[in-house]
Write a sequence for this structure.
């Protein structure tokens, strides 16, 4: 019994830390980037869309290009909201976004995603970079229950995907704000 409890705790800790954290690598030290003060503009956003289990006849979801534009718009909006939007530094982002469908290929599960962020100066010199491992969205407690209920009842669809894009974008903007000394 004691061994089972230890195994349960190990699994619980693994679940808690899945998708958490990454370490920023600074290529110029000391970094010129200032935590919460430096301003950023998105130069490049490359989206790599994978659709897992999609009904190929379902054309209601955003295309890769449309989804990339949605991410770019949302991240820029979040940078503005965080007070760090400007042209002091350049941000290049690669997002690997796995749109996961429920059985039948028309309704959504939570997406799986990972991303790479690179921050450059105006001379295109890399100043900082980081990578987030494969993750999924995690909402506040009651919202998380509502989302999981929608998924389990096959009611999460194209109208709900913008919530996931917004949450991921908000997270990216907050992480960028935390970069620097």
């Amino acid at each position: 019994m004691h061994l089972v409890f230890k195994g349960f705790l190990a699994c619980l800790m693994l679940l808690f830390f899945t998708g958490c954290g990454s370490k920023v690598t600074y290529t110029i030290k000391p970094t010129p980037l200032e935590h919460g003060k430096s301003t950023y503009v998105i130069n490049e956003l490359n989206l790599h869309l994978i659709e897992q289990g999609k009904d190929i006849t379902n054309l209601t979801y955003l295309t890769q290009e449309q989804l990339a534009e949605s991410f770019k718009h949302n991240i820029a909006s979040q940078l503005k909201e965080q007070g760090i939007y400007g042209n002091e530094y350049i941000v290049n982002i690669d997002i690997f976004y796995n749109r996961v469908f429920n059985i039948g290929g028309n309704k959504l599960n939570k997406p799986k995603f990972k991303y790479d962020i690179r921050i450059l100066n105006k001379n295109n010199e890399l100043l900082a970079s980081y990578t987030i491992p494969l993750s999924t969205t995690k909402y506040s407690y009651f919202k998380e229950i509502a989302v999981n209920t929608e998924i389990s009842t096959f009611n999460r669809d194209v109208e709900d995907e913008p919530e996931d894009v917004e949450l991921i974008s908000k997270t990216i903007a907050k992480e960028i704000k935390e970069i620097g000394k």
